[in-house]
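WARN retry 2 of 3 for item q-0093 after timeout on previous attempt; input resubmitted unchanged.
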Amino acid sequence: MEGTMARVISRRTFLQNSFAAAAFSAFPRLPVRGGRPPNILFILADDLGYGDLSCYGRPEYRTPRIDRLAGEGLRFTSNYTAAAVCSPTRVALMTGRYPARLPLGLAEPLRYGDESVGLPPEHPTPASLLKRSGYDTALIGKWHLGFLPEHGPIRHGFDEFYGILGGGVDYFSHREPSGKLDLHEGNVTVDQSGYMTDLLTDRAVQYIRRRRAAPFYLALHYTAPHWPWEGPGDTAASRRYRAVGDTVRGRFVQGYADGGSPRVFAAMVQRLDQGVGRVLGALEDTGLSRDTFVVFTSDNGGERYSYNWPASDGKRSLREGGIRVPAIVRWPGRVPAGRITDQTIITMDWAATLLALGGASADPRYPLDGVDLVPLCQGRRVQLDRTLFWRTLREDAVRQGAWKYLRTGKDELLFDIPNDPGERADLAAHQPEKLASLREEFRRWNAEVLPRPERSTDS
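OK item q-0093 returned
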């Protein structure tokens, strides 16, 4: 079924994607020094909420290194994730397509140890396509798109992999809640000491400092600030989590997802900020900053200790707090510094953008739902009118211009997002035609993707 669905695209979607591609391709590319395409560093945080960086409004602590990155590049204020949880968003990032086009994208998220589904090894990814264009490729950090061997990163275009396969691990023991060790070097499980955020940073710095002839694509997917809530000094909390961690039919009842405090969360985010600073420092030290396109973003909205203001709710919700997250781009000399854009973008756009940067083309059998953002990042006056869709087991959502349609249970809501990012004022009764129009847009899109599963996958 997947082979058939992967190749099916409606006339409506084709026209929409063609318009988007034409709108962006009308602008010329800026030349790259020496005629070589840029290095690409894609930094993905895990469960970082919209306001969890000080440059996005976090009041209790500072994130000076990421703030500096924003000051040196472009900051997005309407960046959306393709889903409100981890695995489906990562499906969108690795395919450039709506998660619901693949069986794996229906998982909310992929359960620990579930080997029944994963990212199909035949599906192209930015890594596989960039590798074909001459890039060295590496994934350092979290995968959460399937388990070894057929669904692992090495089968999807990454020359190297160092990190975890599942949804989250203890920061010190690197074990799942069940106690299973989940740290891997390539296809080999390894047992190493160290705080997870630091281990990933160390490996990324080593990778950047390595001499190479080809440009690189480094996907640095941190596990922070996803639970368990452990700062770099919280070894006692780590022992406590491991002692009480338990699962019942895959659902966590205590342990890893419990505990924490605002202080611990701050320590986790600040260690992430320090790690990003070290990685950017490695680019500076090696003279690669001007030749490297850097992206920093998150996989979905935050939870528990996150500060998602002015958005409401958080992870797992299709309200703004679950799907609107920070995004920053830097490319010195090519991306003007100190700019902010409210252009609406979504996860799939990053895949399309990375391919454009690397001179790679999407596989026509798997047409992209995302668009190339390079002209926008370069400071061109680009206003892309688009309609974006989300779906979970319990909710539907559409964003079109200023309007957002949200169905939750039997309730249908309509919001003017620029004027009401907290989604407090339901305008459905005042704009019945707009509500009906967006409902119909969703119905058409929903008919193009895989049907909703009948029951949830616990996580």
